[in-house]
Specification:
- The radius of gyration is 19 Å and the shape is globular.
- β2, α4 and β3 form a beta-alpha-beta unit.
- The chain is about 45% helix and about 10% strand.
- The two termini are about 35 Å apart.
- The protein has one domain: TIM Barrel, CATH 3.20.20.
- It has an eight-stranded parallel beta sheet.
- About 40% of the residues are buried.
- It is built from eleven helices and eight strands.
- α3 packs parallel to α4.
- By secondary structure, it is of the alpha/beta class.
C-alpha cells in the first residue's frame, strides 16, 4: 500500500536529488536546527540516559523541521542522521526518559514525510561492520542496525527498501570471498524487518569491494546494491560504469526506486574527497527518471539547489 501511495504522487524531478544528514541553512539559524546532536562516550558515561535522552528528543523534533524545509524547497529525498539517538547500541530506546515524546515526534516525522512524498533513508557509520572478525564488533553492529530499523518503525514506515539502511561491507581482511561469507551470515542474524531495509554500497578502494565483487552477496542474501558513481572511479572491478549501474539496479525489488550516490572530486583536494558543490554533467546512462540520486557534497542542500538551478538553465 505504501508503495502504491508513493507511485500516485506527482511526477518526480528528473533526476530526483537528495542530500545527507545536515541542512546547513537550518544549522546556522539561532536557535540552531539539526538532527545529529551527539556527545562523547565519557560524557554519556558521566551524565547517563537523561542527557542522551534530551539530545535524542531535540534531534527528533528538529527532524520534523528539516522535512518541512525540504518540502518547501522541492527536495524529496533525505538521509537521516545515524546519530539521532547517541550511543543507542548501549541501551534500549524505551529506557530513555523522553522516549514517549520522541515516539510522538518520530510519528509526526513519518506522517509529514508520507504526506509530502518524501523518502527518508539512513547510512550508519563505518563502525558498523557485519563482516568483522571480532564477534563483539559484529554484535554491536547488529544492535546499531536494529536501532536504525526501529527508528523507521517509529516513523510508521513499513519495512522495505524504500526507507533503506545502507552500509558498506567493511575491510576485506585479505580474503574477499571469506569476508562476504561472514557478512552474509551476519545478515541472517538480523530481524526480518531490518533485513527488508538493508542495502550495501560499493567501495572506493581496490582492496575493498566493487560492484562486481558484491553481486554474489546479493545472490546469497537478496540485499540490493547501491551504486556509487564516484567510488566506481577508484574501484571498478570487472565492470564498466554503465555495466555496474545496470547490475546494481537489477538487484532492487520491483516497485522500489533504486537509489544511487553521486559526488565529485574537487580540485586541490584528495581525489576521493567530496567536492563542495556538484557541477556535472551528471550522466546516469538513461536512467534519470528511474532512480533517486543521493548527492554527497560538502554543501549539502545548497549543492542540490545549485545543481537544480544549473539543470534548469
Amino acid at each position: 500500500m505504501q508503495q502504491l501511495q508513493q507511485l500516485a504522487l506527482p511526477p518526480l524531478p528528473v533526476p530526483n536529488l537528495g542530500y545527507a544528514c545536515l541542512n546547513q541553512t537550518l544549522r546556522l539559524r539561532k536557535p540552531t536546527i539539526f538532527s545529529g546532536r551527539e556527545c562523547r562516550k565519557r560524557t554519556f558515561e558521566r551524565r547517563g540516559l537523561v542527557h542522551v535522552s534530551q539530545l535524542a528528543l531535540a534531534n527528533c523534533i528538529d527532524l520534523l523541521k528539516i522535512v518541512q524545509w525540504n518540502h518547501e524547497h522541492g527536495i524529496r529525498l533525505f538521509r537521516v542522521s545515524s546519530n539521532m539517538f547517541p550511543w543507542a547500541s548501549a541501551y534500549h530506546l524505551d529506557d530513555l526518559p523522553d522516549f514517549a515524546a520522541a515516539c510522538d515526534a518520530l510519528a509526526a516525522v513519518g506522517q509529514l514525510a508520507r504526506s509530502y512524498g518524501q523518502r527518508l533513508t539512513s547510512h550508519p557509520s563505518h563502525f558498523v561492520q557485519l563482516a568483522a572478525q571480532d564477534e563483539s564488533l559484529v554484535q554491536s553492529s547488529l544492535r546499531d542496525l536494529e536501532v536504525q530499523s526501529q527508528i523507521f518503525d517509529l516513523m510508521g514506515f513499513a519495512p522495505s527498501h524504500w526507507n533503506k539502511i545502507n552500509i558498506h561491507v567493511g575491510g576485506a581482511y585479505g580474503d574477499k570471498p571469506g569476508t562476504l561469507l561472514r557478512f552474509a551470515r551476519s545478515v541472517d542474524r538480523l530481524s526480518a524487518d531490518c533485513r527488508a531495509r538493508l542495502t550495501v554500497e560499493n567501495d572506493d578502494r581496490d582492496t575493498m569491494f566493487s560492484t562486481s565483487d558484491l553481486l554474489p552477496l546479493h545472490d546469497w542474501t537478496g540485499v540490493p546494491l547501491v551504486f556509487d558513481f564516484h567510488h566506481h572511479k577508484f574501484c571498478a572491478g570487472l565492470l564498466s560504469e554503465a555495466e555496474a549501474l545496470e547490475a546494481s539496479l537489477a538487484t532492487w525489488p520491483q516497485g522500489i526506486r533504486p537509489i544511487v550516490h553521486w559526488s565529485e572530486s574537487q580540485e586541490g583536494r584528495k581525489p576521493h574527497a567530496h567536492s563542495d558543490l556538484i557541477m556535472g554533467p551528471m550522466c546516469l546512462h538513461g536512467r534519470e527518471a528511474e532512480v533517486d540520486v543521493m548527492v554527497e557534497a560538502k554543501h549539502k542542500e545548497l549543492a542540490v539547489i545549485e545543481f537544480q538551478r544549473i539543470m534548469a538553465l
